[in-house]
């Protein structure tokens, strides 16, 4: 079958090529899905560069979220799924290919209201956002939230989840006026701040009259660490999901707010979680988000769709940090 490989095992987007590999087989509790579309994620860029620690279950082929049609099953345990069902799913890897073997615990029946492209943009982003907001951030109705990288797919999902769950205020950061306008006018955040032209931490302190924010979801890391502590409310939670700004703190960071504000910081990577943990997150998505995809309350924002053969171009667009929403590749 066709799959995306990396010349030399790692490197820039120009190293991506269409390879021929063996079609996977389904183990116990797994299904073989013929993929119609798959979503790109920032971890894919890191994996391509050889900088992402893969879980032991992951195959060499990139890609963790997809939509497609069930072709067959392994022995036993395929829940309420049947051959021919249209599904979306999350995997440890292998979605950049025509077929994937995946646990049925990580499959979801595809809503008819969503296209193949939209469906492929749901699993990783919406499950990550749900985990960050509810499981780790312990968000409650009436609290405030700050989403960094506000126009990223995870933050776009998280903003919608927070609104639906009764957030009293939602703040976001982004790097262009176009993204600021999108966040405020399209998604309806309380206020978005341009980190290139504004001191976002000072602006949030002013907007909250010094009270700060209850839940902060951060993808940046070191360069935002002090700002996050400064805007954290008392008894707040900071959820660290990425290190786009580095992992080593600059000199002079004042960690005192950790103590006197009783701030809790927790990092998380979804891909390294065990199957049972991911299944629980899948069930949370089905219970709380799926109905709102069907009635149009939640939207999957797709920035651009590429044919499978244009994977190099798709990776380069993701690397540009100019997108608002998902980049999807399709098999035509």
From TrEMBL:
Q: Please give the InterPro entries that the UniProt record associates with this protein.
A: ADH-like_C, ADH-like_N, ER, GroES-like_sf, NAD(P)-bd_dom_sf, Quinone_OxRdtase_PIG3
What positions does the domain Enoyl reductase (ER) occupy? 11-329
**A single MF term (Gene Ontology):** NADPH binding
**Short name of one Pfam family for this protein?**
ADH_zinc_N
Domain of life according to the entry: Eukaryota
Q: Which UniProt keywords apply?
A: NADP, Oxidoreductase
UniProt-listed SUPFAM superfamilies: GroES-like (SSF50129), NAD(P)-binding Rossmann-fold domains (SSF51735)
Q: Under what name is this protein listed?
A: Pc16g10390 protein
Q: Which organism is it from?
A: Penicillium rubens (strain ATCC 28089 / DSM 1075 / NRRL 1951 / Wisconsin 54-1255) (Penicillium chrysogenum)
Lineage here is: Eukaryota, Fungi, Dikarya, Ascomycota, Pezizomycotina
């Amino acid at each position: 079958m066709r799959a995306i490989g990396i010349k030399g095992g790692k490197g820039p987007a120009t190293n991506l090529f269409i390879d021929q590999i063996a079609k996977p087989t389904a183990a116990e509790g797994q299904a073989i899905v013929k993929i119609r579309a798959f979503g790109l994620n920032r971890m894919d860029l890191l994996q391509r560069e050889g900088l992402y620690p893969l879980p032991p279950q992951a195959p060499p082929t990139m890609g963790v979220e997809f939509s497609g049609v069930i072709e067959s099953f392994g022995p036993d345990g395929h829940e309420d799924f049947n051959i021919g069902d249209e599904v979306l799913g999350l995997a440890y890897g292998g979605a950049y290919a025509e077929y994937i073997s995946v646990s049925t615990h990580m499959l979801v029946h595809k809503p008819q209201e969503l296209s193949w492209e939209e469906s492929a943009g749901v699993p990783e982003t919406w499950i990550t956002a749900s985990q960050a907001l509810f499981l780790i951030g312990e968000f409650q109705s009436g609290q405030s939230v700050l989403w960094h990288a506000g126009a990223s797919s995870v933050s776009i999902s998280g903003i919608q989840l927070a609104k639906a769950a009764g957030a009293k205020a939602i703040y976001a950061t982004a790097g262009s006026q176009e993204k600021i306008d999108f966040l405020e006018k399209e998604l309806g955040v309380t206020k978005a701040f341009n980190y290139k032209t504004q001191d976002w931490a000072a602006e949030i302190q002013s907007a909250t009259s010094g009270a700060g924010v209850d839940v902060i979801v951060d993808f940046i890391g070191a360069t935002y660490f002090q700002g996050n502590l400064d805007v954290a409310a008392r008894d707040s939670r900071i959820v660290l999901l990425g290190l786009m700004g580095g992992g080593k703190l600059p000199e002079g960071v004042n960690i005192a707010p950790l103590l006197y504000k009783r701030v809790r910081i927790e990092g998380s990577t979804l891909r390294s979680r065990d199957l049972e943990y991911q299944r629980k997150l899948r069930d949370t998505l089905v219970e709380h988000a799926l109905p709102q995809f069907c009635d149009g309350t939640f939207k999957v924002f797709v920035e651009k769709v590429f044919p499978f053969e244009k994977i190099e171009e798709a990776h380069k667009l993701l690397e540009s940090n100019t997108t608002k929403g998902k980049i999807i590749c399709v098999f035509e």
